Amino acid sequence: MLNYPLTTLIEEIRLIVPLSETDIALLHALFQPLSLEKGDYFVQAGQVCQHVGFIQTGLVRYFINQDGDEKIYSFGLENEFVCDYESFLSQRPCRRAIQAIEDSALVIISFPNLQRLFAELTYGERFGRVVIEQVFVKTIRQLTSLYTDSPEIRYQAFLDEYPALSARITQYHIASYVGIKPQSLSRIRARWSGKDYTRLSSPE
Length: 204
Description:
Layout (H helix, E strand, L loop, with lengths): L6 H8 L6 H10 L1 E5 L4 E3 L7 E7 L2 E7 L2 E8 L4 E2 L2 H6 L6 E4 L3 E7 H10 L3 H25 L2 H11 L9 H8 L3 H12 L11
Antiparallel strand pairs: 1-8, 2-7, 3-6, 3-8, 4-5, 4-7
Helix pairs in contact: 2-4, 4-5, 6-7
């Protein structure tokens, strides 16, 4: 049995389905701890994603490297699941990467153990369906925004979705997520604040 606190994971699952004591024991048996230092990868492009993780503490970014240009399309924060689901479900190599921006503590579950979880958890199939639905909706929303929204709208959406994240990441990361150059984000911020932001920080 896992000698590691699963309190937050259990609380998050209980928001979706009820859990019995037997269910909780199963979670402890199937999840394992994983520590990532800042800069470590949860998975890199070209690798097969072998686990679904749950972030206890820390922060990760999802990004694609296109012709040497990193394009961030999402962030993973505390109390959120993290995975390249396309690679994980198909067991094929990733086309994107997931990297820790901060030192992060996670618990992870392998593909075989996740199938066991769905089968043996009292409401395992319902839990799996709801999580996948949430991932699908979030992915479609992000993709639609990338092709239809202006940079200003995407920046406002970033502030709305991640209200406390600006203090934890560089402005370079924000600009990459919005889909513009740092200088363009600087001009947006200057227009909004009335101040002249002449230079945004570069990646560490």
